[in-house]
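Recall that a protein's primary structure is simply its ordered list of amino acids. Everything else, from secondary elements to tertiary packing, is in principle encoded there. The following example makes that idea concrete.
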Amino acid sequence: MRSFFSKFKDGLKKTTPTFYKIFGRVGGIFSGKKLDAASLEELEEALYGADFGVETTMEIIEEIQAAYKKDKDLRGQDAARIGASVLARVLEGAEPTEDWLGSARPEVICLIGVNGSGKTTTTAKLGWKFKEDGKDVVLAACDTFRAAANEQIKTWAERLDLRLVSSHHNADAAAVAFDAYQAAKDKDVLIVDTAGRLHTKSNLMEELKKIRRVLQKHDESAPHHSWLVVDGSLGSNSIEQARKFHEAFGLTGLIITKLDGTSRGGAIAGIYRELGIPIYFVGLGEQKEDLQPFTVKNYCNAIFGLEEA
């Protein structure tokens, strides 16, 4: 099986012509040559283009510039290592702890976010990952608002042989959550897929709160995890969205999807700086195996074109 590092590098370049659009551009600047003023300018442009934002970009540039002033023979790979180190500091704490999955039966994970972020497919892929790890998993199809959502998650559940609790279009989502919890008693994990919603839609935000209240009738600490699923291709536009959801629902984690086809995945740094909550998984493709645990080291190395170490 290919490593996460390989998947990350391949995922980032899959749909970016010549792997120069952004992520490859950052790494390509450091391809073994000596650093110079032109390559520093090019790096700054590439980081801005990838939506790393002013703060993170300037921290990276300033540290590399300081090293360059001390050593005019500084080589690209040395500068890349400095850049990766700075980015790793920015993302310190972004990885969840190894024992993040608690001992509740079931441990309830609620996935929320806007339409098109990939919640439903992520729900199924996440369920498959837990199943592969030997966990008993139940999925709750609480996106009763979108007509196609039930069929979509049913198709995934059948394909991956996952237990699913669902209802009909426009059914009470909180009632589905209640039934799903009943079905998941004494199981390991319950994953709740919710309807896509904008933070400005008060009725749908109230529905989320109702789902939470219903779950807490079974377990006052549920949901144990409230994760925002963010479309990585939205870049910095996703930061405000994430902040609003965090204010309304108290997020405990993030999943960043669609990183395989974007040139704007640098917004991961901005979202983390804004919210300070862990990034649990990243989506690097359409296959079930392409939902991968996020690791700071592999992300930073992939950005700066460094080899796995």
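The CA atoms of residues 196 and 267 lie 21 Å apart. The longest strand covers residues 225-231.
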